[in-house]
Amino acid sequence: MRDPKTDATEPLLRSNLLTRRFGGLTAVNGVTLGFHVGEVHAVIGTNGAGKSTLINMLSGEMPATSGSIHFDGHDITDWPQPQRARAGLGRSYQRTTIFPEFSVLENCRLCAQAALPRAWAVWESAQHCEASLATAREALERAGLSDDAQRSAGTLSHGGKRQLEIAMCLATKPRVLLLDEPLAGMGAEETERMLALLGALKQSHAVLLVEHDMDAVFRIADRITVMVNGEVIASDAPAAIRANRDVQTAYLGEGH
Q: Of 46, 92, 83, whose CA–CA distance to 205 is shortest?
């Protein structure tokens, strides 16, 4: 078997015929995809296409009805969400999930602490755990928020809060980033900062990006998968997706 740690052709995370049904409704139907370190893999589609349900299954927040998920050569289909997170799957959400009353640094430190619990260190204040603080500061630096470390998280701009969410994710030391609409509501300048961040992060992570900003998707994605009614209708390089007539008809429109 190929080793995903050393073989760039083997996806770090992959799904095989992944399906989720809610009664008589099939939200995701037989999705087989691979996510590689060094790539931003965008998943696009209209509302209700199954994108967030796919992320929820990959992250372990929702069980699959059928199919399988493999991470780093291991079958993780039945792993609970905390186990997947500790193994290296990190995610962000459509809605902001920060602690607004805490400092930017404290938000990241809490995530680092959750990933590296030290229950035996009963004599040590969690707020002064050097390992967690070092990891938090590193995550803030990577996300471009070092200068804002002592600010209250609630005072950040919308784009800054989205950057903080990714920093919090990075503080858990993930190898895969599952990002659900990180560009939502951003202005042009904030979008540019986020795209630069994603371009840097893909060098050491496999990145799944769910996003509705098509201009941004076609600029940053190395591969684009298009979902319609829970199924994949195309998965290819951006140029091929742009030229795909089925995609144009179902989603992009004739102007793309």
A: 92
